[in-house]
Amino acid sequence: MRAFMAVGLLGMLACDSEPRRLVVGDDQSAEGGAETAAEEQNADRWPREYVAGPGTGAALLFEGPGGLARIGYVSEGTPLSIAGFPEGGYVPIRIMEGGMKVRALIAADRFSLRVQQRGKIGGTSVYVTPGDYVQFVAPGDDEGIFRVRAGARFGREGVEMPSFEGIYPAERLGTQEATPDENFQPGEPHSLPAGMEVPLFESPDGETVATLPAVDPPMVVQLVQERGEWKAIRVGTGPYMVGYTNAALTPADALEPAPQPRQTAAPGEPPMRLRHDEQRPLWRVRAGTWVRYADEKVARLEADGWAREMGRTGEGDSATIDAFVAVDDGVAIRGMVPQEALFEVAGQAAPAQPAQPAAPAAPAEEAAPAAE
Predict the structure, then answer these.
(1) Of 2.30.30, 1.10.3470, 3.30.1300, 3.40.50, which CATH number belongs to 188-251?
(2) For residue 42, what are the CA distances in angstroms to 36, 80, 92, 214?
């Protein structure tokens, strides 16, 4: 994985404390030199700050000599700082805000910006409104333009559509939460035919831009305009796919449900991700503790946190604990912490655990063993 060579970004990162290095690998090869040089020339056009986009599963990874391993989870909207150029579907990032500082790789499809002003993504049939997430791909060919990727988003499970890459003005994207656009008017809710695929066209009698999946209960779309047998529709809850259909639509009582915010723990309560594996000890972790993976520092607690023990090596105070660690619901990391950094949850006696080998690094295609 290539390190960020751009002077501007190195200046930004140099002021940060450890973890100094998470990405472990060979220096850039001659084969990748031209590509890296081109990226360096455009480095000043890359935003420094991003947010984690929506998604499920363990999106934070560690790269070491043994390859990639999934080590953690990050919640939608968590602020990210870029720490290297994307490569192989992953982006080196730092998480510097919140209760735990982290340096890791993040899956590229979670490396995002928030829409600040509505519009259509150029070269696609995707329409976005304030607050929607788009995956950041790279600066565009022209100044002030970003290459982004997005697709229709839905709030119910089992309804998915592909994403599409296009261009969008940089000034309409950012990291802050956006104010809803009062001038944006949703269309009238109408149901597609149940249990059958429906093509979405670019224009009446035009090219097919997507195929809407066969679902039952049927998908509800927004009817924006009618032109004879053709209907202009929006698909999703934001971002949207926009286009035309000549399928028979039926008036519906309500629009598709939007994705619900993730449930969060009350102050002083264990983070939601650590409420699984209840048969295992749950510890408090002292502020200032480093979390290590493969002997590398990957995270540091800025406040007292929580750890769900998964295994241990050694005995007594010299033991090292394999655990999922979190301070809040923003980030949870799998790694090793020293026994001396732990203290028991008030009112809960942690049972003595026999010495166990730490879990081996999970390959990238496997999720870390915790529920999202």
Answers:
(1) 2.30.30
(2) 10, 20, 17, 43
